[in-house]
Amino acid sequence: MLGGRLTSVFRGRQHEASAERYLLTQGLRTLSKNFLAHGGELDLVMEDGPNVVFVEVRFRAKTRYASAIETITTTKQRRIVRAAASYLQKYPALADRPCRFDVVGLDGNELAPSIQWIKDAFTA
Length: 124
Known about the structure:
Shape: globular
CATH class: Alpha Beta
CATH architecture: 3-Layer(aba) Sandwich
Number of strands: 5
Oligomer: single chain
Strand content: 35-45%
């Protein structure tokens, strides 16, 4: 089971790296990756102009029932919001800046997924 978990984590990191590369081409700048907080993790924290952007990355190979983006539940959103609050406590210089929550969904083929980016996907 441990080997499967390691493979899953590795694949998740690969998808996050793909999303980060995509966002960098869109003009965002990376602040942090895989920030761990009590009860949650932030996949990417980026800057978009004056905005601090908390990015949730999702991959889904089969989209018959739901796309990657559609798998983000309200429970997951609450965890991301709590983790973002922890991040801003750790980095208080960023706390006065506007913040938003974006989602990047990668669907289909793992080697060449389609990418969908939703800015301001949900609010705190």
